[in-house]
Amino acid sequence: MRTKHTFRLPAALARQLAEHASRHRISQALVVEAALTSLFSPDSADRLEAALARRLDRMSRQLERLERHVTISNEAQALFVRFWLTQTPALPDAGGIAAQAKGRERYENFVEALGRRLARGQTLAEELTRDIDPGAD
Questions:
Q1: b/e sequence 2-12, b meaning 16+ C-beta within 10 Å
Q2: First-to-last CA distance in the chain?
Q3: Which of the residues 4, 33, 37, 124 has the least number of beta carbons within 10 Å of its own beta carbon?
Q4: Mean predicted confidence (pLDDT) in 13-26
């Protein structure tokens, strides 16, 4: 036995219901019935929990990759700064202006190279991974 129900939906939701029913060539009542059956089904909570667990696992893996990339970046920068500080001799006072000009030029070149590299999608972490373990591809 079926019972008739009358209810109102927001316009956007009504449009979605009509489009879904039309696309699948079924009645809107059947779509609503399936949705309510799914909502009230005893295993719906289990399905929701499983879906959330899968999503949390994926997010955890993404965070682990992000942490690894940040660690690599930090180590690369620290190594560079340490090397630069130990290998770069102090400049005489007379060469300071020329050194500043050369430094600005090098910085501009660095920014351009970084922009090109990011535009290609090439990352230091991927390059280091390939250099460390060539068979990882």
A1: eeeeeeeeeee
A2: 61
A3: 4
A4: 93
